[in-house]
């Protein structure tokens, strides 16, 4: 009887978009993979790091023609691994931070497909670093909460009912219902003067941000026409944002040259 030779699936965090923020291990695996299965948040620059002969499969839930919503992982990923191929399943951010990595790992294990997980920089960390916002700060925030703005279908509890009233709050996928989120946080006791911001396409060339207060953020973001994917950050740390002296000096120098 011929032995069954299974391939392997790597659940790899592709980070928030900037290819230079990939881990060394992630970059190596991408370059070695037989198959790159990627979602819509993975940038073209990262996909370009793969071999020219590597198969590329768009498996994101918003991918054209995708019909695997009932499955925890795209069937083609499992089929490729069962065919003996090395598959890198690229996921925006980190696989285990609102990336459905746990669900995909469950299905791989059920199919007896070997897998490993490679962490990536989550969008919250990329946005905070780019905007110079410390998610924790000795003066005002001893904790940070990551939360999704979308409740699981059928959940009866209020969306933000378990979110702490102090510390830093980071919301994923919250732009579409930003006004309701701000209203909920205000109703639960957060001050309308709490600094808040939205960061869109963090670490990418088209990154965009708006800064306001919890009471005004929804209106300011709407007027700015900021687009998803975006991270919402609420807390006193947003007010602790520090401009880089080098960046300020360069901007001033360019202004003088232009004039």
What percentage of residues falls in helices of 4 or more residues? 25-40%
Number of strands: 10
Largest sheet properties? 5 strands, parallel
Would you tell me the overall average pLDDT?
Answer: 88
Shape: elongated
The fold-level CATH name of the largest domain is Methyltransferase, Cobalt-precorrin-4 Transmethylase, Domain 2
Radius of gyration based on Cα positions: 21 Å
Summarize the structure.
The chain is an alpha/beta fold and 259 residues long. The protein has eight helices and ten strands. It has a five-stranded parallel sheet with strand order 3-2-4-1-5, with helices on both faces.
Q: Key features?
A:
5-stranded parallel beta sheet, 259 residues, Cobalt-precorrin-4 Transmethylase, domain 1, 2 domains, elongated, alpha/beta
Care to describe what's here?
- The chain is of the alpha/beta class.
- It has two domains: 8-121, Cobalt-precorrin-4 Transmethylase, domain 1 (3-Layer(aba) Sandwich), CATH 3.40.1010.10; 124-240, Methyltransferase, Cobalt-precorrin-4 Transmethylase, Domain 2.
- Helix content is 28%, strand content 20%.
- The chain contains eight helices and ten strands.
- It has helices at 24-32, 44-47, 75-82, 101-110, 123-131, 178-187, 217-224, 245-258, and strands at residues 8-13, 35-38, 55-58, 86-91, 115-118, 144-148, 168-172, 195-200, 208-213, 230-234.
- The strands form two sheets. The protein has a five-stranded parallel β-sheet with strand order 3-2-4-1-5, with helices on both faces. Strands 6-7-10-8-9 form a five-stranded mixed β-sheet, sandwiched between helices.
- The chain is elongated.
- Residues 63-69 have low confidence and may be disordered.
């Amino acid at each position: 009887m011929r032995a069954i030779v299974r391939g392997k699936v790597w659940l790899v965090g592709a980070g928030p978009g900037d290819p230079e923020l990939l881990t060394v291990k992630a970059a190596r695996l991408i370059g070695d993979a037989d198959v790159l299965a990627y979602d819509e948040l993975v940038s073209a620059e990262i996909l370009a790091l793969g071999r020219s002969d590597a198969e590329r499969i768009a498996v994101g839930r918003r991918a054209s023609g995708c019909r695997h919503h009932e499955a925890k992982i795209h069937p083609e990923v499992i089929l490729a691994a069962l065919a003996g191929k090395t598959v890198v399943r690229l996921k925006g951010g980190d696989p285990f931070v609102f990336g459905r990595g746990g669900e995909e790992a469950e299905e791989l294990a059920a199919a007896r497909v070997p897998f490993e997980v490679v962490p990536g920089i989550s969008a919250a960390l990329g946005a905070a670093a780019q905007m110079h916002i410390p998610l924790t700060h000795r003066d005002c925030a001893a904790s940070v909460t990551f939360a999704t703005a979308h409740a699981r279908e059928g959940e009866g509890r209020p969306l933000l009912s378990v979110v702490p009233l102090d510390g830093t709050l980071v919301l994923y996928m919250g732009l579409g219902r930003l006004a309701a989120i701000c209203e909920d946080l205000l109703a639960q006791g957060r001050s309308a003067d709490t600094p808040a911001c939205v960061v869109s396409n963090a670490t990418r060339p088209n990154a965009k941000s708006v800064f306001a207060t919890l009471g005004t953020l929804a209106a300011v973001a709407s007027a700015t026409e900021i687009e998803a994917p975006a991270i919402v950050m609420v807390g006193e740390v947003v007010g602790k944002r520090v401009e880089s002296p080098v960046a300020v000096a360069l901007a001033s120098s360019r202004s003088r040259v232009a004039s």
